[in-house]
């Protein structure tokens, strides 16, 4: 089923209301991956538009996948950090609510620490969001965005012959608790870079305040009240979740298990990439994910794993991972950025 909305109208309203600085509205492509070509607001809309944020891991996966697919898109950088939270602006939420995912899934109500959609429900207020003006679709999840890019590219990211092996890895990465490891501290030694430790201190509470503020500004009869109410439930659950050291230890254990399994897979295949000699969406997702873990100081997990260590370095040199994640301008500083960004 394809829902037909006026994506031009919805995306334009979201762009103008939620991307405060026109300098953050650009056009990006694999040939020109840096967001420094200003968008001509009077020109026809590019077919694809992405709403995203520099250090959102889901945005990084989407940008890297769009790069691998060789697709051009209008780049709309939404600041998601409190107290700015442009992602809570009504027009942006309205755009996400026009997606098929919003129509099909229950609204988010809980917190798992992961960023994949399974188990939490539909979050109406996060990035990334991809708009395809040609088909009238709004795609609201990084895995779906990557698969959409794959289809448009004629299966460049998920070759049909190795589809199941690639998707198995993609789903492992999608289930990793990246949100929890970013917002919450390791109770046995917090190695997140100082700007992240400072920025994440009390972050859920700050998000709750911003959602409440935006909700209070909605017209009384707005159909979006439920979306805001559900986001509040998730953020309250997240605040309680990361405050419990046992929860944080469980997330770290889960991550260790996945990385150990990756070592086993890499050792078994003895190829450059996780499913063989071809770089695929599995490597795009793993590369972005390993870089995030490195940035947050979790690379001790694979320090003694030669397969993952070498694989991580190969991934970090891949142009799509560099362009979409590591070198995207505006990333907060940290040892990993200094070492790998170009
Ligand atoms: N399932 C979604 C999750 C998206 C998500 O969790 N986005 C985070 C950044 S990676 C976000 O926008 N957080 C802002 C907020 O919750 O206010 C996806 O994979 O795209």
Automatic annotation (TrEMBL):
One of its GO terms (biological process) is mitochondrial fusion. Residues 206-336 form the GST C-terminal domain. PROSITE patterns: GST_CTER (PS50405), GST_NTER (PS50404). It holds the Pfam family GST_C_2. Residues 31-44 have a biased composition (Basic and acidic residues). Residues 46-157 form the GST N-terminal domain. Belongs to the GST superfamily. This is Glutathione S-transferase family protein. It comes from Roseobacter insulae.
